[in-house]
Specification:
There is one protein chain. With about 550 residues, the chain is of the alpha/beta class. It has three domains: about 25-85, no CATH class; about 95-295, Rossmann fold (3-Layer(aba) Sandwich); about 300-445 and about 465-525, no CATH class. It contains 16 helices and 23 strands. The protein has helices spanning about 50-65, 75-90, 100-110, 115-125, 145-155, 165-170, 175-180, 200-205, 220-230, 260-265, 280, 300-310, 315-320, 345-355, 500-505, 530-540; strands at about 25, 30-35, 70, 135-140, 160-165, 175, 205-210, 240-245, 285-290, 335-340, 360-365, 365-370, 390, 395-400, 415-420, 425-430, 435, 440-450, 455-465, 470, 475, 490, 515. The strands form six sheets. It has a six-stranded parallel β-sheet. The longest helix has 15 residues, at about 220-230. It is globular and about 65 Å long.
Length: about 550
């Protein structure tokens, strides 16, 4: 390539160029951005190059000549063409292959060992010859979380499980994305990707599983891509590691503060959604959608929830939903959980109901160590898995927030406190069973590389011990994510404030008969991000 990049013509337009032509642009602070002919991408172009020493010279010469834009047919385009040719050389997905017998044996082993039919289908798509990132999606209640755990267990110590939040990581048995890669808590650029102990783990990975991918921002996905290329010394997307992402974009949007949102314009992302990451223009997603809903059995209720999910409710649907409006008293809602859109509304309900009980409150405090005691930082868990302190009275409605190893209850089970002592709480479950609850431990895990065993292992870096309970006359809709209830009262208050919130609330209930509404649902409460609709329609 020439030592000095050619200057663009006056008519050059970075968003409407010849098909496949990529342009580089330098921002005020020196970040490097890449564009394609349809929509802007993000500033990780330097890792799409074939020769980094060539890129350094290219950038140095471009900066020396103070060019705002430079044509780049050699770097980004060559990497793109190489990867596209590689994909084109692969046999069609449905073509019988010599690995057919191996795949069949693997599916049989998965099912016989307790794996689900969905896990068997997933193995079908995890053909080692298809390097594309795999997106596993499905409606609420289709078993995505169960399959994730089964897949991670089957992969063993060549796989890590990551999630966007501390609680999601705890539930998935993994680590947060930011703590694993040591990413700063801000919109990422390539200069934020730093080395560290994670490189030793990443070098040994054959699979990277990401839970709740819909909550992961596009810049974080691109950061993972760059980090894995760096660790593997491989220019293929994600360093050639198989990436499997679980989530439903219709349920949980990415977490973006106002300050972060303003930065996305500078980074040239259309939206913060994970699917707008620049890497997916070079590595198109392969998709598996789970369609069997296990939570609800009534086909009318399932179909109605699906229209709530996609914001395609009809007038008849609204009328049907509004037959469930009720202004019930506290006593009438005694064995019904209120799902509130806002945390303050849920807290007010719980405090009012707790104050109405005659007994004096008993306060239970948690014990913390390691990352659970940290005041901040990317490795700390920002939200406790169980309340600290926890105030209880005899007669209080409670929800379990952790599965019982002995299977006396599950996460989301509801009941009423019968007695409280310093060492335990006696709870009568809604099923009628009476159980004694003792404090349980949550472990914050971190992956590390064992040199002697040449294996990826997990170590405990934080512990949190508390009664696995929280007050549950009401909980937030967000907190109810992933849970299932028999009786739900939906309280939107001033209305739903995020896309997918109403769908999450309604889909927590097994039946329409078990669901009631505090107030009518308006069109503004049933919202769906049009970019999500477009993306899901494209991959269907």
């Amino acid at each position: 390539m020439s030592s000095t990049p050619p200057a663009p013509t006056a008519s050059a337009d970075p968003l409407h160029t010849d098909a496949g032509l990529h342009l580089l642009r330098f921002t005020r602070d020196g970040d490097l951005l890449v564009f394609d002919d349809k929509r802007p991408g993000e500033g990780f172009a330097q890792f799409y190059s074939l020769e980094r020493n060539e890129l350094r010279k290219f950038v140095r010469d471009a900066v020396r000549t103070k060019l705002e834009r430079v044509r780049n047919r050699d770097l980004c385009q060559s990497a793109f063409d190489r990867y596209r040719a590689y994909l084109a050389s692969l046999p069609p997905e449905k073509t019988p292959t010599p690995r057919k017998a191996v795949q069949a044996a693997r599916r049989m082993a998965a099912v016989e060992s307790g794996g689900s039919a969905e896990l068997a289908e997933l193995y079908d798509r995890l053909d080692v010859r298809d390097p594309r990132p795999l997106f596993v999606t499905g409606r609420a209640g289709t078993g995505k979380s169960t399959v994730l755990r089964q897949l991670a267990a089957a992969q063993g110590n060549t796989c890590v499980v990551l999630a966007p939040t501390g609680l999601a990581a705890l539930n998935a048995g993994g680590q947060t994305i930011h703590s694993f890669f040591r990413f700063p808590l801000k919109p990422l650029t390539a200069r934020d990707i730093q080395g560290g102990k994670w490189l030793q783990v990443a070098k040994k990975l054959t699979m990277l599983i990401i839970d709740e991918i819909s909550m992961v921002r596009a810049d974080v996905v691109d950061g993972i891509d760059v980090a894995m290329r760096m660790a593997k010394g491989n220019d293929l997307p994600f360093g050639g590691v198989r990436v499997v992402m679980f989530g439903d974009p219709f349920q949980l949007p990415p977490i973006v503060s106002k300050e972060q949102a303003s930065a996305f314009g500078d980074l040239w992302y259309e939206t913060p959604h994970f699917f707008d990451a620049a890497v997916f223009k070079y590595a198109p997603l392969s998709t598996v959608e789970f369609r069997t809903v296990y939570r609800q059995r009534d086909p009318v209720w399932v179909a109605l929830l699906d229209r709530v999910r996609t914001a395609t409710l009809t007038g008849d649907d609204y009328q049907l939903l509004h037959t469930r409006i009720t202004h019930a008293t506290d006593d009438e809602l005694d064995e019904t959980i209120i799902l509130a859109a806002r945390r303050l509304d849920a807290e007010r309900v719980n405090q009012r109901r707790l104050d109405a009980l005659d007994d004096a409150p008993v306060t239970l405090s948690a014990e913390r160590s390691g990352t659970f005691s940290a005041a901040g930082g990317s490795g700390a868990v920002k939200q406790d898995p169980a309340p600290d302190p926890l105030q209880l009275k005899r007669g209080a409605r409670v929800m379990f927030v952790k599965n019982d190893p002995e299977e006396n209850w599950v996460n989301g089970s509801l009941g009423e406190v019968q007695a409280i002592s310093a060492t335990g709480v006696i709870v009568k479950l809604d099923s009628g069973a009476i159980v004694t609850v003792e404090a349980q431990e949550w472990q914050q895990l971190e992956y590390w590389y064992d040199d002697e065993a040449d294996e990826i292992r997990q170590k405990v870096v934080g512990r949190y011990t508390q009664m696995p309970l929280q007050l549950a006359w009401a909980v937030t809709i967000h907190k109810s994510q992933g849970l299932t209830f028999d009786r739900v009262h939906v309280h939107l208050g001033r209305g739903a404030f995020s896309a997918g919130q109403t769908y999450v609330a309604l889909s927590r209930c097994r039946t329409m008969e078990g669901m009631t509404l505090e107030s009518p649902i308006g069109a503004g409460d049933v919202r769906c991000d049009p970019r999500v609709v477009e993306f899901m329609g494209r991959i269907a």
